[in-house]
Design goal:
Length: 141
């Protein structure tokens, strides 16, 4: 991933652009059919239906990304609270997906598993598989 700066930090939500173009096309076709007598009502309805797909995808993608960011913050606080001083800094060496996987570990095995995950660069699946005492997450969407 390239490093972010003031020159390149712009956000371009392509799925939102696609949904907007589809919606505008649908409104143009439906409006033209209603007020100008164009024979494009069916195309307008089709475009309106196609608008739903990127919007549903955006909703799910944004929800998961936001949830992952919240989990990372939660894990930083949790590690600072239950681990010896300085050990919580190891969390910064893991990827977001590794941190999300680590959240299932119980407090008493969190430190050892965190060290092992950093040392062995364990995959998220391997981290979940190494957990002996599972801490469930019932609030995940």
């Amino acid at each position: 991933m390239t490093s972010q700066s003031a020159a390149n930090h712009a956000h371009h939500p392509v799925p939102t652009y696609i949904a907007t173009v589809l919606w505008l096309g649908a409104m143009l076709c439906i409006g033209g059919s209603m007020w100008l007598g164009w024979n494009l009502h069916e195309l307008g309805v089709l475009l309106l239906g196609l608008t739903v797909f990127p919007l549903v995808g955006i909703g799910r993608w944004y929800t998961v990304k936001l949830q992952d960011r919240i989990i990372q913050l939660e894990m930083q606080v949790r590690c600072a609270r239950v681990l010896p001083a300085g050990q919580d800094e190891l969390l910064a060496q893991l990827s977001p997906k590794q941190v999300v996987a680590l959240r299932f570990a119980a407090d008493d095995e969190l430190g050892d598993l965190l060290q092992r995950a950093v040392r062995e660069q364990m995959t998220p699946a391997a981290i979940k598989g190494a957990i002996r005492q599972w801490r469930p997450d019932y609030m995940r969407t």
